[in-house]
Amino acid sequence: MAKRMMEDLVQSGLERAVELMALAANDAWHFGGKQTLKMVYLDEDEMEEMANYALSLGDMSPLAARDGRFALELMKEPWAVLVFGAGRKSTFNYNCGACGFRTCAELNKAETMESLTSNGPACVFETLNLNMAANAAAATAGRLGLHCRVFSTLAFAAKALEYIDADIVVGVAVSAARKDPFFDRHQFWTKEEWERVFNREFPTFNRGFIGAVEE
């Protein structure tokens, strides 16, 4: 039997782990017994394009720019991203009113409001199904020993680049780096950015934390 080196084993294991995450997301409990989830696994070129797109949003969304810079650093070690998406319209006919409309039919007829992060107005149960699937994927990653973080910024970059056809999106990123990279991202703010951009934009929430709607 041919000898396999550590790097090959790690990369192969990461790819297999992502498949198991996708399986867990597919099998997650969902309202209505309807599977409306969309899911894509991005390759290296797509991840680089996604990272550069997020990085380009510095004036509109400082957080996206930080995460884009961060994603380019993540690519130096084995990592992967699963992006999950769903449509904004209701397929349930629950008529719950949580979306702000009296009936699902009224929601579905409403004009679509496009924004950086997602399109709305959206059915709350579609959103819950989406996030339960993402949580199932993240939980599986944790059980498999991978570093993991759920991202909105990388997901809406994938949406903008049309890697996934969906109105609401969320991304689950995993890394096989020797050190957990996901919870020390302040290194990706320069001192100038911290003083000029972060302190000016984020406390005011004048653009919804991550610049959801362009002024």
Could you characterize what this model shows?
The chain is an alpha+beta fold and 215 residues long. The chain has a single domain (12-201), classed as NADH Oxidase, CATH 3.40.109.10. The chain has seven helices and six strands, in the order αβααβαββαβαβα. It has helices at 6-27, 44-55, 62-74, 104-109, 124-143, 153-160, 191-201; strands spanning 38-41, 79-86, 113-114, 119-120, 147-151, 168-175. The strands form two sheets. A four-stranded antiparallel sheet has the order 1-2-6-5, with helices on both faces. Strands 3-4 form a two-stranded antiparallel sheet. A hairpin with a 4-residue loop joins strand 3 and strand 4 (119-120). Helix 1 packs antiparallel against helix 5 (124-143) and helix 2 packs antiparallel against helix 3. It is globular and about 60 Å long. It starts with 5 loop residues before the first helix and ends in a 14-residue tail after the last helix.
List keywords for this structure.
6 strands; 4-stranded antiparallel β-sheet; alpha+beta; 7 helices; globular; two-stranded antiparallel sheet
Q: How many separate domains?
A: 1
Strand order of the largest sheet: 1-2-6-5
Order of helices and strands, N to C?
Answer: HEHHEHEEHEHEH
Question: What radius of gyration results from the CA coordinates?
Answer: 18 Å
CATH architecture classification name: 3-Layer(aba) Sandwich
Amino-to-carboxy terminus distance: 61 Å
